[in-house]
Amino acid sequence: MAKPRLDLGSVDNLNLAGAKEWWVRLYREPAPSLSLQLLKFGIAYRIQIRAAGISEPKMPRRQRDRGRGKPIPRNLAPGTRLVRDWHGVGHVVTVVDNGFEYEGRHWSSLTAIARAITGGKWSGPRFFGLPA
Fold first, then answer.
1. Residue 54: CB partners within 8 Å, gap ≥ 6?
2. DSSP string covering the chain, please?
3. Mean of the pLDDT values across residues 110-122?
4. What is the pTM of this model?
5. Does the structure show a pLDDT above 80 at 17?
6. CB within 8 A of 92, min separation 6: which ones?
7. Under a CB-based contact definition with an 8 Å cutoff, are residues 127 and 114 in contact?
């Protein structure tokens, strides 16, 4: 029996169990502890990459083995999206030419965004998992 296929239009209909199952099928590893919304982002990303026939860049072994997930380079290119789950809510920040965009507003620093999200003092790069 053939495995069912998932298309982009069906991603929104996934529940948490379904999202975790598809994550394993698409990434060949257990789903990380993320909100349903962020799991759906990751699933949609992988579906689009496969549909476009793009091969994802390989990460150097030393970075993979850190246990902190996929590190993001410090010199972030415009268009890069930083994703963070905070208390079950997904937050997406887009890097733009002169700063960052979050919730339709322009921000000059990740630290300001991290403080707005958490209500406390946080290092923005650390909050978003950027390497030191």
1. none
2. -PPPP--HHHHTT--HHHHHHHHHHHHSSPPPS--HHHHHHHHHHHHHHHHHTPPPPPPPHHHHTTSS-S---SSPPTT-EEEEEETTEEEEEEEETTEEEETTEEES-HHHHHHHHHSS---HHHHTT---
3. 92
4. 0.49
5. yes
6. 41, 81, 82, 83, 102
7. yes
